[in-house]
User: Fold this.
Amino acid sequence: MAESREKGSQRTGILLLLPAGILISALMIYPVGHMVGMAAVQDGKFAASRWGILLYRDGVFWRALWNTLIFVVTSVTGEMIAGLVFALLLWEIRGPLANTIRGLILLPSMLSPAVVGIVWLLLFYPFGLVNWGATLLGIGRLQYLADPRLAMASIVFVDIWQWTPFVFIFILAGLTGMPAEPREAALVDGASGWQLFRYITLPLLRPTLAVALMFRVIDAFRAFDKILIMTNGGPAEATTILSIYLYKVSFHYQNWSYGALLALVLIAVTLVFQWTYDTFVIRKVA
Amino acid sequence: MGRTLFGHGSMRRWRRLLLAGLGRIAIVVILLYTLIPILWVVAISFRDPVRTMTIPPEILVRPTFRHYQDLFSAVWGDFTAYYINTLIVCGLAVLLSLAVGMPAAFGLSRDMVRRRWSTIFLGTMTIIYAIPPISLAIPFYDIFSDLGLFDTKTALVLAYQSRVLPFVVWMMKTFFDEIPRELDDAGMVDGLTRVQVAWRIVLPLCVPGTFATAVFCLILVWNDLPLALVLTNTPRAQTLTVGIVSFVQENVTLWNPMSAAAVVALVPIVFFVLLIQRRLVQGFGTGLKG
Amino acid sequence: MRHEREGKRPKSVPPDVQAAKGRMGIPRRRFIQAIGGAAVAAGIGTPVSWSTLRAVAYAGTTPAKELSAALSLGPWNASVEYLFKKYGEATGTTFKTTKAPYMEHYRRMVQAMQRQDTSYDFMIIDPAMYGTIFFKNKLVTPIREIDPAWRPDPNLIEPHIKVGTYEGIVYALPIVGNTQLLFYRSDITRAAGFAGPPKTVNEMIEVNKKVTDPNKPFYGCILPAKANYDIIYTSLAYVKGAGGDIFATESGPDWTIRFTSPESVKGFKAWLSLRPWSPPDSANVHWAELMNYILTDRAWGGLTVAAQVFQIDDPQFSKVPGKIDVTMPLIVDGGTGKSAPILGTWSMAIPLRAPNKAEALAFMKWALTAERQREFAAQGGIAVRRDVLVDPTLMRDPKNRWFAAELESSTLGQLRPQMEHWIEVQDRMVPYLQKAFTNEMPLAAALNGAAKEVKELLDRYGYKNGPYEPAKE
Assistant:
């Protein structure tokens, strides 16, 4: 009885997965295979080894890789912390405006990254709002996007601005769904605020944090429109991350083969990094 | 504020009030930080270029509605068509991904296929989600051109699956995982098949989660640029985001009509999210219980 | 570099073109109008060529044609589309235009041509930046292949045609005569006691010193140095003005690096000497930002392209209407003694597999006649004919005060290297130039670093080049 149910459920299972499977194969495996093919073969010759050597010698690639790692680590960390702080602050407020406030906080994540890039380009102008605020505060005018030292910090800032709400809503949901008993029990036992947070809340939030982190890390590696619009990878390649470099190689130099290889490298780096971050950071922290 | 989170045992009254006050200030600061750029965009959509880049920013400027009028009288391209296209394409893309992704998520959640296959399936999903959209755009361009689907809404709906399907499968699997198997078994004891169990028992419990996933997917595709830009050519299939970046031209960027376009693109999403914000949080909450 | 595709490609004619081909004939009144209009257009000033006759005949005998045009997004589109409209009124031909951002347009056109796409009849491209990939690989049809009797009208400014010529064959005809011009505030220059705009770099430094006020702030001559090739476009004017160049030859066969030669270094130095009076964020300034500085009364001027001219008097964009004037790019002291404006012409080209080549060429020729160019210029377009740029009626309008500079600039117009990998070469050079610009690296070291990377590129792609002279301080 259980046997046949097993078999039956197997068959149903395959049927359930089939439409998705077909869609994936047709729409994605073929293009990806196409990409791998492009990376491996150029002008009818086997090019993978040639690209391997080129990659090793390609200074721009290594700089872009380094920039990408810096970008991802700083922006994702910033988003996670800021999202956590926002969620903790806004979770329990009550009152008629509470829902509206929580809704408004979500706005930056609902804009297209291209639009965000354009808006902040405008804001970072020497005569834009940010500099005006800076002069009011006595900081003086800075070149946010033109100064090679500041440019990366500026785009990280914009990325954090845009994606913190995304993390915020995940954590907010996690907090809402948290069972109340462990916390109440700890309070009865006399736990302090910090202990409560560190040993009860945070571990309970771990699955939420892990999911938010996974999506954010993968997305951060793919960040593209914003940066292209704000600095085009400059000044002096300070903000050239891998996705920008591969765009230039493919679209500007018309070198589709090398571009495809770079894309595959980017994907590999993304997955390795995401696994590492998840295993060693999240599990430690929470 | 902060009472239940941080405990109230060891705190004196004035300290608690201080924390509450600081919390309120923090909230205001956060709101300002979040909203000022957006409010600025709205503000310049009502101005002329010459009044856009001044410091101190001129706050009281007589508004002009010209940019909005121009948008919808097709001075800058057919925004009405863009709007309709975006609604259709995004709606269909999300519906398709739900229709295809939810059964798959259920099958994965209930271990209805061999471990090996489910690992491969989920792994493929992650890999596909990790591909930068511009890298996919070119193979898609080739494929859809060959199929004669270049510059069609169909092509976009299909291409967008690469962005939303992995998201749907991951999220729905997480939600389904939260529903205990005992309910499934109870249903089957009552004579229901697995699929009926899914439809009648598990799914209704996951409505908020499905809802939340659908909204997120909608936002993902509403704002997509690389795929829409590469796969479309005319108002037959172009979307709002393509329309917005068309204001970044050679030698000049037309900030003001562009802001108007951005506002126009944002309004439905904002409206929608504000409306269902609570459901959204609930939705994720039920699925992500610690 | 070509994107090789495995497998066969089914031929496909897009449904829109199909639908257009099936449209019905024209009613009688339009028929006569069409014949009349076409005859007038053909008769005014242009040598009547076989293709024009064919176009006239076509207009009368076949159903209205639809030409499919691919444009990139630019402020000149309004005047170009005006021409489309007028041509439609004259011959009944309609245009289906598609537009895309600059790089996307480039990618789309290259890929469409490589796939032997038949969906476009003609396209407007920027040959100086990326033309060679089309010309060298014959992705577009040479003009003389469609009409062997075609000769350029002597009134068409020669450099504009040269930009669309490769190895002696003309592939693309100019439509928007975009060239380098120095925009500046004539009122401020006069108030500072100068008779006219500065002509040389040293004169510019004098003007800069007088007009710049860091407290307002009001800057002098802006040097745009954003990482999207503006930095090369701008500095090249100075390099060429000093007698230098990027490579030994403009279109080969000798691609030895010359941007490290003493003349080139002199040119770069002249360029950098203007930096102190340029705004502090110049490393992220593009044409759009440069114009914005000038139009909002925050800078004296800068070197940019003629296409920016539409903004200077429009109160929507400009706080200083009527006060901005235009002159030639600066002459480098001790150099060639001549200004060396770099061309940025936009040209019309016909794809290899265009279905309506003759009709497309007919339009192109029609658009380049004196009468049409005059109308084009009146609409704000940038004409490419000498006789239009000196036309007395047009010159009387103060709105067109930039015509004289445009004419001189076009006549002296310089090309950029005609190589397929020009974009990649620029990408190698830009970071180094930016570092030199922001003082992160001394100029000679930057140029030598760039030269090393460019040489590696040249060798990798098989460009013949010899040893180059490293830059010295």
